[in-house]
Amino acid sequence: MAQRLYDQYRFLLEIDRLKTVLRQNVLTDQSRRENSAEHSWHLAVMALCLEEYAEPGINLFAVTKLLLLHDLVEIDAGDAFVHTPAEEKSQREREIAAAQRIFALLPADQGAAFQQLWTEFESGNSPEARFARVIDKVQPLLLIEATGAVTWRKHGTTQAQILRKLKFIAEDAPKLWPRIQRVIADAVATGALISD
Amino acid sequence: MAQRLYDQYRFLLEIDRLKTVLRQNVLTDQSRRENSAEHSWHLAVMALCLEEYAEPGINLFAVTKLLLLHDLVEIDAGDAFVHTPAEEKSQREREIAAAQRIFALLPADQGAAFQQLWTEFESGNSPEARFARVIDKVQPLLLIEATGAVTWRKHGTTQAQILRKLKFIAEDAPKLWPRIQRVIADAVATGALISD
């Protein structure tokens, strides 16, 4: 077999491991925690459904690619539930190293293109990356809302922590913001989210 | 909240259930069976990587959408491991009913568009649908190859059953066919696949 196809297969086999990376959120039926591969699928379908809440003229295929690929680094770096700047810096370093290792499995042209997509998502400096980052935060809230915010309750999460992470949505996808505000308010009202 | 966004959220919540639909194949680490949501993600990334083996001029975004959506019917119909024409007919009827129910959760315009994509995938009558159907068969073989064909061994699958399902790949993506032939030959050689 040609080396090129061999390398593509090696990458495609390696990324199977994303299915074993567990996130903090649980599925709507609360049977288990969500993994990062099925989460990425949910994000991509969500982007297809919610395109109309993005900036006009956005390239939806680019958004989809960003969402399908952005969590691959968790194969090495795990899914972090980080709240402090020091934790964020350390996690960030692990993710950069992971991107370099994983995308290097591909033929050089494809690896470079995927690396660029990952960097674009992380930087958030395109309309597509901004919308992808909105979707990446809206999907967990769907599960939070459906499960009585069991994840926030378990972790002793505070309203300030959540607002710090989510407030950019008010600007980047303002039509999606009211429901997010309501999810947060409901969680505070039931004591699932600590008011601070 | 506007009814439109409410309906979109209802659909996005409903499809979370695809994460609990189990397929026959196991993950490469053999820790558990694969579910249909993470499978759909793997397919979409695979299409991004293997575009060059499709017919020239293909619309890769269309392929990606077909792959992200085509398994949603399994929420109602399950993932079938069918080998007889009667089983196939019955499964097909369940899937048609499932598509009607699930896509009807969306606003009418989006539901119709998704239904059309599902029908396109099933019919296989576009270059995009043909390539999507190739990818949908190549991904399981990646897991079969990585796990010593444990799934075929467990089910007493025969070479003829597999060839009947896969032989279209020789025509639709001929460059991918040699490795598939090798996986089948290796499985026959080790007794994981029954030679008939």
What's the gist of this structure?
The structure is a homodimer of 196-residue chains. Chain A is mainly alpha-helical. The first copy, chain A, has helices spanning 3-14, 36-49, 60-69, 74-77, 85-103, 108-123, 127-146, 150-155, 159-166, 168-172, 177-189, and strands spanning 22-26, 33-35.
Sum up the overall morphology of chain A in one term: globular
Annotation field: number of helices of chain A: 11
Query: Quick one: biggest sheet of chain A?
Result: 2 strands, antiparallel
Share of residues in strands of chain A = under 5%
The oligomeric state is homodimer
Q: Which class do the helix and strand fractions of chain A yield?
A: mainly alpha
Describe the structure.
The structure is a homodimer of 196-residue chains. The first copy, chain A, has helices spanning 3-14, 36-49, 60-69, 74-77, 85-103, 108-123, 127-146, 150-155, 159-166, 168-172, 177-189, and strands spanning 22-26, 33-35. Chain A is mostly helical. In chain A, strands 1-2 form a two-stranded antiparallel sheet. The first copy, chain A, starts with a helix and ends in a 7-residue tail after the last helix.
